[in-house]
């Protein structure tokens, strides 16, 4: 099976859902953010503070390209789709699932979070404005799932249902 890539905004549940999906399908799980943290040996907030976003984006592209493209679940960082090369790489090598989540729900989930450097100002505004810019890019995915009112288990089930119907599976 081609890789399954989970894409979506910060807090949409890519890491949470990817972990559960991998358990359910008994497949290895990778997360591009975790790959970067491991190879840089420092947290994402520190990478942004010390080397800036552009450096992080390069590390992110490298991490994506270093992962297996068969029989894996890959959760990505929220901004991975900003790079056109990353979008076409995921399309070519796998099946992309966009986990949509409404700005209100995102805010609810992220209001106390301090690990995401791009949300360090007015969180609600940051979520709304960045989501608006990114939506068309996320929507290039093979599948779009509105997770706003779904539990973690329900989202995992939606993905497995779509996979069984999908010819790439
Ligand atoms: N129904 C739900 N689906 C997914 N996550 C949920 C749900 N309800 C609450 N959460 C919580 O929302 C948070 C989602 O965060 P998660 O780290 O999985 O997002 P992410 O998409 O990986 O973000 P990032 O792009 O920053 O890596 C978790 O703390 C999770 O427990
Ligand atoms: O949406 C984004 O741009 C980001 C999302 C996170 O997963 C991390 O990759 C980082 O905090 C940047
Ligand atoms: Mg994540």
TrEMBL record:
It catalyses: shikimate + ATP = 3-phosphoshikimate + ADP + H(+). GO terms for biological process: amino acid biosynthetic process; aromatic amino acid family biosynthetic process; chorismate biosynthetic process. Its EC number is 2.7.1.71. Coiled coil: none annotated. Binds 1 Mg(2+) ion per subunit. One of its GO terms (molecular function) is ATP binding. Substrate binds at residues 33, 57, 78, 134. Pathway: Metabolic intermediate biosynthesis; chorismate biosynthesis; chorismate from D-erythrose 4-phosphate and phosphoenolpyruvate: step 5/7. Gene3D superfamilies: P-loop containing nucleotide triphosphate hydrolases. PROSITE patterns: SHIKIMATE_KINASE (PS01128). Its cofactor is Mg(2+). One of its GO terms (cellular component) is cytosol. It is an enzyme of class 2 (transferase). Its main location: cytoplasm. ATP binds at residues 11-16, 116. InterPro entries: P-loop_NTPase (IPR027417), Shikimate/glucono_kinase (IPR031322), Shikimate_kinase/TSH1 (IPR000623), Shikimate_kinase_CS (IPR023000). It is found in: Cytoplasm. It holds the Pfam family SKI. Keywords: Amino-acid biosynthesis, Aromatic amino acid biosynthesis, ATP-binding, Cytoplasm, Kinase, Magnesium, Metal-binding, Nucleotide-binding, Transferase. Mg(2+) binds at residue 15. It comes from the Bacteria. Belongs to the shikimate kinase family. HAMAP family: Shikimate_kinase (MF_00109). Monomer. Catalyzes the specific phosphorylation of the 3-hydroxyl group of shikimic acid using ATP as a cosubstrate. This is Shikimate kinase. The gene is aroK.
């Amino acid at each position: 099976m081609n890789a399954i890539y989970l894409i979506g905004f910060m807090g949409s549940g890519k890491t949470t859902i990817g972990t559960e999906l991998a358990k359910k399908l008994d497949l290895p799980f990778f997360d591009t953010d975790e790959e970067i943290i491991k190879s840089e040996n420092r947290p994402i907030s520190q990478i942004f503070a010390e080397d800036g976003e552009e450096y992080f984006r390069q590390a992110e592209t490298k991490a994506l390209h270093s992962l297996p493209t068969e029989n894996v679940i890959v959760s990505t960082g929220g901004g991975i789709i900003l790079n056109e090369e990353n979008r076409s790489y995921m399309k070519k090598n796998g099946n992309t699932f966009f986990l949509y989540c409404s700005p209100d729900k995102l805010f609810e989930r992220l209001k106390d979070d301090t690990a995401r450097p791009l949300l360090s100002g007015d969180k609600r505004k940051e979520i709304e404005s960045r989501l608006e810019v990114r939506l068309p890019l996320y929507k290039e995915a093979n599948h779009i799932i509105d997770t706003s009112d779904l539990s973690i288990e329900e989202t995992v089930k939606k993905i497995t249902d779509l996979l069984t119907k999908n010819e790439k599976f």
